Amino acid sequence: MMRLLYPLIALLCVILLSPAAHGADELSPLRLRFCVEETEYPPFNYFIRQDGIKTSTLSGYDIDLLERTFKPIGIDYEVQALPWLRCLKDVQNGSIDAAMSASLNRQRATDYIPSIAYYYLTPSYFYLKAELDPQFHINDINQLADFGTVCGIKGFNYDNFGWRKETPISEINSLQHLPEMLLKHRCKFFLARKEILAGSLALTLSGVLPKTLTSKVSPNTQQEPFYMLISKRSANKDLIAREFNRQVQAMRDSHQLEALYQFHIQKLTHGDDKGSDSL
């Protein structure tokens, strides 16, 4: 009799100690993790200002799009603002599920799973109007290096500008400081996506500085697509890609993506507190 009971006792122990018996799903509910650039990338992600003071609450096109994707289907998530290189590294190693607002190059296409493109920006270069002849013209963006120091943001991808890796570029940490680098004559030019710089100036700077700047579209380029980069090591990579791509396509078909972009542009440029969270 005891020999018959031993297997039954062993089986009961396995069942009782299994994760299902203890409600593992309830103890460890699905919670996705996303990251964005901590120095802000308006209108796509930025910190809300209250009475001109920067808060720790994120807002923007990316934030709203994540909410519209995952909240209706009951999936919990969080968004962290991190230095961009760390954001990408954490996604690559799987500690974060995906990064928002990323351009694509060959290496990133290998290291991550890109979503479908969900917005497009204009690769441009900027300089002070008074510094160069009004007829200043180049045929290749790399020619800028022949006229002076070219600045960009550390960790940003400028492949889609036509910028070659062997061409020298001076890297700084914050997009908002690029115009200041021109005024201090530490840069002759800087590279930036036109729409992002406009949002950054509206969010953090006075309206006087932009009048001293001029910009031109990078030669021989088209508008640059931006993606969510999903970790290949995420246990939820298929879910994220499926639901995000589905939502982006549905909002594009109904013209809601453009409406969402325009809402945040208006919020930044005309809001009383430069990015309050009221509709």
Automatic annotation (TrEMBL):
Keywords: Signal
Coiled coil residues, start to end: none
Domain of life where this protein originates: Bacteria
Segments forming domain Solute-binding protein family 3/N-terminal: 31-268
This protein's record includes keyword Signal: yes
Signal peptide: 1-23
Listed transmembrane segments: none
InterPro entries: Solute-binding_3/MltF_N
Family indicated by similarity: Belongs to the bacterial solute-binding protein 3 family.
Full protein name: Amino acid ABC transporter substrate-binding protein
Species in which this protein is naturally found: Shewanella bicestrii
Source organism phylogeny: Bacteria, Pseudomonadati, Pseudomonadota, Gammaproteobacteria, Alteromonadales
